[in-house]
């Protein structure tokens, strides 16, 4: 792949707005309109006035605008307040109409959901989600470094597959597997984790399955992942697809040599290496009795930095590329359009314009200015990165 916007994107994108519209196709909008009008007719009967595309665009525009103002935790009523609110909210629609749309918006037929729910826990938003995910790889080719990690969409209401991840800011929410470009944090693929399969049996080798799903279609890239995903078997499977891997390894993996796991008698800042025909392992002690183990199918030698900490090159490369998904989380968390809701399909839906806005900035900016594509210019400076984050809704 040639890194940067695809030919499909460059032929259709003039600016960030046109790039954003490519992620939310008319077919997706039609599904939301049809299902929302169906629910509106069921709740309000003859008094319901059917929505059109203009109504839905106005509603989504206000959600995004609230995110631009970083007002996702601000009471909706204050956004419409005549004194302290913003005039554009009152000019677009009334507060009552906004509340009605937030209550009525649907993404599937409620009457047929129980039958689909038996085989698919994501049935309430499956059609919209799958059509949106299909758009992600059509707009942008990731660079040589791709990060696979988990995201957490904050949600504390009732959901059959809600997760608790204490390391995340939101703690509780809906887990989403993601594959992102390590440099620009473009979300190239996503998958909602819906818990145990319908059969009820725990999934084996879940980390391997997730990485293989997330990287399907890639070739010639290096995949960076953490110790939940990294394994010897994953490295072998990725090599069959012409992909390499760099990742941290849990110390209880049975395939690890005991000499790499043990820290007895080893000095701080020391490194030990192990090699096979396809894999490289390194054990590094950043300080006494603290052991960090990484596995790589990209590196073939025992290169160590000449700097003071004598860090192995494998670890330097891992640290450089591990933050692709984390950066996306930071941007979408800062400028999120999500509003308080008790319905998990709406929480998943709010994630769609959040990620679409960040993706649209990356693909739209580079489509309009090809000289900014990776490989054609030096990496962005810190000031330029801050400017990009400030502009990205």
TrEMBL record:
InterPro entries: PGBD. It comes from Scomber scombrus. PANTHER family: DUAL SPECIFICITY PHOSPHATASE 26, PIGGYBAC TRANSPOSABLE ELEMENT-DERIVED PROTEIN 4. Residues 367-393 are annotated as: Disordered. It comes from the Eukaryota. Residues 19-361 form the PiggyBac transposable element-derived protein domain. This is PiggyBac transposable element-derived protein 4-like, partial.
């Amino acid at each position: 792949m040639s890194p940067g916007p695809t030919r499909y994107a460059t032929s259709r994108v003039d600016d960030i707005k046109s790039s954003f519209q490519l992620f939310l196709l008319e077919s997706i909008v039609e599904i939301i309109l049809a299902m929302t009008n169906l629910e509106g007719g069921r709740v309000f009967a003859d008094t319901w006035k059917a929505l059109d595309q203009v109504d839905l665009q106005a509603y989504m525009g206000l959600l995004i605008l609230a995110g631009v103002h970083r007002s996702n935790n601000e009471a909706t009523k204050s956004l419409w307040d005549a004194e302290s609110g913003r005039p554009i909210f009152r000019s677009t629609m009334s507060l009552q109409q906004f509340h009605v749309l937030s209550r009525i918006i649907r993404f599937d037929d409620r009457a047929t959901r129980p039958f689909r729910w038996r085989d698919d826990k994501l049935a309430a938003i499956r059609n919209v989600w799958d059509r949106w995910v299909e758009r992600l790889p059509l707009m942008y080719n990731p660079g040589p470094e791709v990060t696979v990690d988990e995201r957490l969409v904050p949600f504390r209401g009732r959901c059959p597959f809600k997760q608790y991840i204490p390391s995340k800011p939101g703690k509780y929410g809906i887990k989403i597997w993601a594959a992102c470009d390590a440099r620009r944090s473009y979300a190239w693929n996503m998958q909602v984790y819906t818990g145990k399969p319908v059969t009820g049996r725990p999934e084996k080798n879940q980390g391997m399955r997730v990485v293989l799903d997330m990287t399907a279609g890639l070739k010639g890239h290096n995949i960076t992942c953490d110790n939940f995903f990294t394994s010897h078997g994953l490295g072998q499977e990725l090599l069959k697809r012409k992909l390499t891997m760099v990742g941290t390894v849990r110390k209880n993996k049975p395939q690890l040599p005991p000499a790499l796991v043990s820290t007895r008698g080893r000095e701080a800042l020391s490194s030990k290496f192990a090699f096979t025909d396809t894999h490289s392992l390194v054990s590094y002690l950043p300080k006494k009795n603290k052991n960090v183990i990484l596995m790589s199918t990209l590196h073939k030698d025992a290169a160590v930095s000449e700097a003071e900490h004598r860090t192995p090159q494998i670890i330097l490369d891992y640290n450089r590329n591990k933050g692709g998904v984390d950066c996306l989380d930071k941007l979408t968390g800062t400028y999120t359009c999500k509003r308080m809701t008790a319905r998990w399909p709406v929480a998943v839906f709010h994630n769609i314009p959040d990620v679409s806005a960040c993706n649209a900035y990356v693909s739209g900016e580079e489509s309009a200015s090809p000289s900014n594509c990776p490989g054609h210019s030096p990496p962005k400076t810190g000031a330029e990165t801050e400017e990009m984050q400030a502009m990205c809704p």
